[in-house]
Amino acid sequence: MVKKARIYIYFLTVLLLLSGCSVSKFIPDGQYLLDEVHVRSDNKEIKSSEMYSYVRQKPNSKWFSLVKLPMYIYCASGKDSTKWINKLLRKMGDAPRIYDPSVAEETRMQILSAVQNKGYLGAEVVLEEKLKKNKIDAYYRISTGNPYMISSINYNIEDYVIRDLLMNDSIHSNLVEGMRFNVNVLEEERNRITQYLLNRGFYRFNKDYITFQADTVNGTYRIDLTMNIALNEQNNGNNNSLHRQYKIRKVNYLMDIDNLAAVRNNPETDTVEYNQLSIIYNDKLFLRPGVIASHNRIESGKLYSNRDVMATYSSLARLGILKYSNIRFVEHLENDSAYLDAYVYLSRNKNKTLAFQIEGTNSAGDLGAAASVTYTHRNLFKGSETFNIKVRGAYEAVTGLEGYANNNYTEYGVESSLEFPEFMFPFLKSDFKKSVNAKSQVSAKYNWQIRPEFERTLASAAWSYRWNSKKRASHRLDVLDINYIYMPYRSNTFIEYLNYMDEINPLLRYSYEDLFIVRLGYTYTYNSAGVSTQQTAKKSSYSIRFNIEESGNLIYGLSKLIHKKPSDGESYRVGNISFAQYVKMDFDFAKNIMIDDRNALVFHIGTGIAVPYGNSKSLPFEKLYFSGGANSVRGWSVRSLGPGGYRGASGSLDYVNHTGDIKLDMNVEYRTHLFWKLNGAAFIDAGNVWTLKDRYSDSTGQFSFRRFYKEIAVSYGLGIRFDLDFLILRFDGGMKAVNPMETGIDRFPLIKPDFSRDFAFHFAVGYPF
User: Fold this and answer.
1) For the domain that residue 701 is a member of, what is the CATH number?
2) What pLDDT is recorded for position 655?
3) Which residues face 476 on adjacent strands?
4) Which residue among 304, 320, 348 closes a domain?
5) Burial class (CB in 10 A: 0-12, 13-18, 19+), 75
6) Are residues 293 and 216 in the same domain?
7) Pseudo-torsion of CA 309, 311, 317, 318, nearest 10°?
């Protein structure tokens, strides 16, 4: 292994040396390769990392911030750009960045302007160039000097209506006497005032009417600031007047009609008046008037509000039957009053689709195939209700089973859902429904699994709500989630196996018994950048996910009222079927730190605990935690790590034993852009799962504060990701570094790695966190 490592190092060194020689061929005589760019500041408040964003010409990117491999790939192409191999290398690589002094001077001026905008009007930025053969390093050194402070704030607002509004709202102003002069804050104040006025009827107002005049006091670092708001310019361009406040006169909805001319030229259009809305349509009205009114936020008689317009766009966007919406306004002037007629254009989407899907399956190495057909109706009751029904079938040839008549695994399933684009609940006021952009969903599912060992059916029904409280925060409330697990058949061989395992792990039998799960849950998710794991973050951000759920408490309370003691002395039953009782909590936090536009460092920690009690001795198998796999500790395959130091036993169903009631995942991942749509990653994972109670005779796997940290597994590895903008395809290879399931030298595979023993490959869709 050591010899192989040396060979790889020698090969990489020679490759880089050869590439380094080829770079010089792409540097014209008398010019230099831009090798490094540094920004230095003598003031901690002016962060170099922030100023680096103003650099106009940056050096070639580095893989993992270490090696400029994309540049070397480009330079390996040679001078002949007509050869296909050279074209490919140039497309994959990154052309050498030749230093441009004029662009460097533009960068210096932009950095200077950015520093002065922060109040350091006497700042200086010096550009230094350091030569290294045919390379150059650029240094931008910032000297800020003393900051300027605002000593007084004056207002020059001739429009008395606007002046009174702003004075009454002065508590929300960003400007305060004694604050540091900051152009960015002044721009924020312009935007705030503009939005404030746009939400109070000033339809034609824009921030260009707002200007600032800053007068410095001689010999001091003090500024007298004056805000000016100009009067409105009339159409003739000569006379100035007060800014007009517009009221909404009429609100019109045009259904599948492109423009007003189409209405005037088509005498067959019909109009429905509903709640002060005029709904204009051809042929048939594809949305109920009540649905349109419930998603409308623009009201007749009210002052124009940009906030209402954006809220209408947002609410209409939740209607799956709509392809797009567009809102336009027509002005009407009557004497001294100004009015707006709103025209909301709604374009209909296809309401019925049929999709077929064929997929390959791989369950613990057993290959198979599955097929499904899905029917979707996006406007079932003319209220943009989305109805889905999916029928699925799968087949696998199960290997490694002995003592069974056949090795076939088949699965049949049907699932359906009905989603409403509002908060569907009795006795709720319409104002509340409008204030919460919610979706309601009811669903039902039936799944039938036929294995050589057993038959298993799962029937479920659910009722849930989803809504957003802010742009980046989402909520999910599962009001009721009922699952019924029924085992109609277990083979004699399988029953014998369960009897044998009773002494080793009673959980196994519990996982293959009839069971009711009646669940209530809530999930909160927040992402500061507003992106998902299907997108590559473009800026530093963080995300939080919290989930809590409980099951069985209501049924347990009712059972205890009716029966003082369980009929079998162990657990209460519903229709002679046990029901699960537990509480479960999960928390995930991820932090994404952008080093530059091509490199990022991501930290993640995930933890959870589930406690069975009352009617349950153990959690249902579907609710148990597992470790290993593409989104956990990637040196282990899925469901193969833990609990604790549990080593595993022989048998095709040992994956049941690799589960726990407590989980811990910790990950660090360095992500870098390679070329084209290809990204790379280097990662370190750590974690495990543990049980709350003794499951094995030697207490292996049970959580203990005295030893849990010794049972944390560690792995490391590399990954390749294809960023297709709408989808991330991920390939990760992990190696074990610390294996808590082994002892002695085998406990630390990092010291003596064995590829065949310690490597695990994973394919997944989306980032792991």
Assistant:
1) 2.40.160.50
2) 63
3) 466, 523
4) 348
5) buried
6) no
7) -150
3-state class (DSSP) for residue 165: helix
Instruction: Give pLDDT, residue 413.
Output: 96
Residues 588, 473 share a domain: yes
Same domain, 540 and 578: yes
Q: Give the structural domain span for 319.
A: 246-348
582: its two tokens: 């537990």
CA-based nearest residue to 37, from 115, 133, 108 = 108
In a domain, 441, yes or no: no
Backbone phi, psi, residue 710, to 5° = -80, -15
The predicted pLDDT at position 699 comes to: 65
Q: What residues contact residue 540 under an 8 Å CB cut-off, 6+ apart? A: 592, 593, 594
Task: Answer yes or no: are the C-beta atoms of 190 and 228 closer than 8 Å.
Answer: no
11 in a domain, yes or no? no
Asked if residue 381 belongs to a domain, the reply is: no
| 505 and 571 housed in the same domain | yes
For the chain, the straight-line distance linking the first and the last C-alpha, in angstroms and rounded, comes to 33
Q: Which of the listed ranges 649-653, 707-711, 726-730 does the model predict with the highest average pLDDT?
A: 707-711
Please state the domain count of the chain.
4
Among 86, 115, 116, CA closest to 26: 86
CATH number, position 231: 3.10.20.310
Check pLDDT > 90 for residue 571: no
What is the per-residue pLDDT across 99-132, written as a single tens digit (0 to 9) for each? 999 999 999 999 999 999 999 999 999 999 999 8
How much is the mean pLDDT over the chain? Answer: 87
Domain match, 613 and 682 both: yes
- Residues 332, 310 share a domain: yes
Domain shared by 255 and 291, yes or no? yes
DSSP result, 711-744:
G-EEEEEEEEEEE-SS-EEEEEEEEEEE-TTS-G
Q: What is the pLDDT of residue 253?
A: 96
Which of 491, 511, 489 lies closest to 502, judged by CA? 511
Residue 335 Rama label (left phi>0; alpha psi -120 to 50; beta): left
How does DSSP assign 254-315, residue by residue? EET---HHHHHT-TT-EEEEETTEEEEESSS-SS-HHHHHHT----TTSBP-HHHHHHHHHH
Cα(539)–Cα(518) distance, integer angstroms: 41
Q: Is the peptide bond before 643 cis (omega within 30 degrees of 0)?
A: yes
Q: How far is CA 319 from CA 83, 380, 382, 738, in A?
A: 52, 12, 11, 51
Q: What tens digit of pLDDT does each residue of 445-482 get?
A: 999 998 888 899 999 999 999 998 777 889 999 999 99
Task: Give 491's contacts (C-beta < 8 A, 6+ positions apart).
Answer: 404, 452, 453, 454
- Going by C-alpha positions, the residue among 549, 626, 608 that lies closest to residue 580 is 549
Are 174 and 189 a contacting pair, CB within 8 Å? yes
In a domain, 488, yes or no: yes
| Number of helices and strands in the chain (H, E) | 15, 31
Q: Report the 10 Å Cβ neighbour count for 177.
A: 10
Q: What is the tens place of the pLDDT at every residue in 255-301?
A: 988 877 767 667 778 899 999 999 999 888 999 999 999 999 999 99
Phi-psi region of 577 (alpha: psi -120 to 50; beta: other; left: phi over 0): beta
Q: Which of 127, 141, 142, 139 is nearest to 36 (CA)?
A: 139
Domain finish residue from 190, 209, 241: 241
d(C-alpha 514, C-alpha 468), whole Å: 37
d(CA 99, CA 138): 9
Angle at 707 between CA 704 and CA 712, to 5 degrees: 105
Under 8 Å between Cβ of 719 and 674? no
Residue 685 has pLDDT above 90, yes or no: yes
Here the tokens at position 513 are 């018994």
Same domain, 117 and 197: no
Average pLDDT over residues 582-611: 93
| HSE (side-chain half, CA atoms, 13 Å) at 133 | 6
